[in-house]
Amino acid sequence: MKHILTILLLGVVLVTGAHVAHAQEETTPTVAVFFNEACKDCGELVKETYPALFAEYGYELELHDYINNRSNRTLLTQTNDAWGVPFELQSHIEVFVDDNLLIGGHVPLDTIRYVLEHPDEYERLLVYQDNMHGEETAYRVWDFTGDIKTYPIDEPITTYLQEAKPASQTQISKRGFWGLFAIITSSAFLDGLNPCAFAVLLFFIGFLFTIKKTRAKIWKMGLVYIGAIYLAYLLIGLGIAQAIIISGAPHLMAKIGAYLVIGLGVIQFLGVVFPSFPIKLRIPLDTKATLEKWMYKATLPASFIGGFLVGLCTFPCSGGIYVAIIGMLTAQSTAVQGTFWMLWYNLIFVSPLFLLLLLASNNKTTEKLQRLEHAQSVPLKLLIAGFMIALGAIILIFFT
Hints:
Layout: H1 2-26, E1 30-35, H2 40-55, E2 60-65, H3 70-83, E3 94-97, E4 101-105, H4 109-117, E5 125-129, E6 138-142, E7 149-152, H5 157-164, H6 167-175, H7 177-192, H8 195-210, H9 215-247, H10 250-273, H11 288-297, H12 300-313, H13 315-332, H14 335-359, H15 363-398
Parallel strand pairs: 1-2, 4-5
Antiparallel strand pairs: 1-3, 3-4, 5-6, 6-7
């Protein structure tokens, strides 16, 4: 009963997290605008043009007059320092959008619209045009990493974005859907080659044979068990994705996820090479008795609860790849696309279990698979460790 309550509590937490994330999404984001109240041209831009423009994209303006309010002047200095804006690109009007876009001065509206509509084409961007008297002739652009570039005022911002984009990133964007499909599918399948879940499923099937369950009954219970693992992993993934959305820094979280999966891969490798290594990526030992208790009940509800618990408890064993993929998805895709990819990821993740259930068609085959699983667990763990390290590096290089 205690574990059932724990599962229900987890469900409440996940649902609550989803509602919190939904409330977060409904909150109107603000744009911080620093300007000079005494400047007539600035006032018209900030109080007439910008409110209508940014409202089209769901933003409200947060105005900071740094002439009449000294605290705003201090805040502007602190914000420029935090962003790393060089003095030559600091303007009399500065508009900070989210954590990745800075508009300085009187930038053409078409340029502003483009960068607002295509945030996926840059990680952080500064667009600067400080001239407000006479004809505008040029503007400057900087991505906070490369060289500051100057372009004629009628040159599209896409020129800079294409020049600044690394060749590797351009290759990935050309692959588009299929590039993402390949990395997600391969990651999910290898993640699904999970010795923890394999061992529990084989134990469960073997037990069902010993108590003389029919093959049809074994199939039903096995499918319920696998479906529960799918549901548990999907809920975990949605919860993590919502937490990343709430953080407001998906690109940062994608990098953290990539470093995390590299670290877990190293831990996995050390745990195999050095058996006495203190950190183990496995099902917690104190939960095995609980899992076996539910398995021994040999009913469909017990199979579901047992599978759900396995999904939760194997997350420390194999969740590193999953977290890295979720971090990448939140930085690369919309909410709908991300949900689709998570549904697909988890389907591929449990596909090895479907194959295992199909192969374990009789008691002797199950015994052979159990021996094979035990004999091959070390090479498989080394393979997964190497893949985790490689996956983290790929995400850092190509997707963040």
